[in-house]
Write a structure and sequence with these properties.
Elements (H helix, E strand, L loop, with lengths): L8 E6 L2 E6 L10 H16 L5 E6 L10 H8 L11 H10 L4 E4 L4 E2 L1 H8 L2 E5 L3 E3 L13 H5 L4 H10 L3 E2 H6 L5 E3 L4 H13 L3 H12 L2 H20 L2 H12 L8
Parallel strand pairs: 2-3, 3-4, 4-6, 5-7, 6-9
Antiparallel strand pairs: 1-2, 7-8
């Protein structure tokens, strides 16, 4: 039984590091309106705290993040809109990418679709070797539009073309080779490797750290807002399509969609 009052994002701070933990394991930490709202609130609190040097984004349960909450999307198409004030994924990705403080993604398991957007938006990402990834959008009749903004800034073109177009799963080692991850390590080394990175950030001067992150963002940061606007239109078009409705129905019924040969 899911406790509807329990937070979906837990917060803690220790030795200058704020940790935001996605805690919605019943739906594999899908990006529901409430989870997006709580994550945005957690980021805002951490970014406003002068005692916080960096932010860790992690999760509990069987997955890091499954991407969009398809049940919520289906309900919205049926006229049952979720919280209209909940931040969209472009807001979350922009907050992470434009933040003055480094954000480290510490994965506990697989990421899919929009969940990979969170990984790509982070400055540094560490995952266990057994974690898998997939841009599943094309297989349910939609387009990886919004997440393309952070993902194309990380992944190499050839690998990105393959995984965007096929929707196939790839492992953490392939993700690291493609530029999505900083490191893919044995599961019993994830905490130690993450801590090594955090110790490095603790030794860095906060003002210099912020300016260096801005430098790494480069001139493309100025074009990000317009890119998110354009990709948001593409995303809305395809999520409202007949193919998307068929893709969601097939997903819930655990069958292949009608276009599979």
């Amino acid at each position: 039984m899911v406790d509807a009052t329990a937070p979906l994002v837990r917060r803690s701070t220790e030795r200058g590091i704020a940790t935001l933990t996605l805690d919605s394991p019943h739906n594999r930490n899908a990006l529901s309106a409430r989870l997006r709202t709580e994550l945005a609130d957690g980021l805002a609190v951490a970014l406003a705290d002068d005692g916080v040097r960096a932010i860790v984004l992690t999760a509990v349960g069987p997955a890091f993040c499954a991407g969009a909450d398809l049940k919520e999307v289906a309900a919205e198409r049926a006229g049952q809109a979720p919280d209209p004030d909940a931040p969209g994924m472009p807001e979350l990705f922009s907050t992470i990418m434009d933040a003055e403080k480094p954000v480290v993604a510490r994965l506990n398991g697989p990421a899919r679709a929009g969940g990979i957007g969170l990984v790509a938006a982070a400055d540094i990402a560490v995952a266990p070797e057994e974690a898998t990834f997939a841009f599943t959008e094309v297989r349910i009749g939609v387009v990886p539009a919004i997440i393309s903004v952070p993902v194309t800034a990380r992944m190499h073109d050839r690998q990105l073309s393959r995984y965007f177009l096929t929707g196939e799963a790839f492992d953490a080692r392939a993700a690291a080779e493609a530029g999505l991850l900083t490191a893919a390590v044995p599961s019993d080394r994830v905490d130690a490797v993450t801590e090594e990175i955090l110790d490095g950030l603790r030794k860095s001067a906060p003002r210099a750290l912020a300016r260096t992150k801005a430098l790494l963002g480069g001139p493309e940061a100025d074009a990000r807002a317009s890119a998110f606007t354009e990709m948001g239109e593409v995303s809305r078009e395809f999520f409202a399509s007949d193919d998307a409705a068929e893709g969601r129905e097939a997903f819930f019924q655990k069958r292949p969609p009608r276009w599979v040969l």
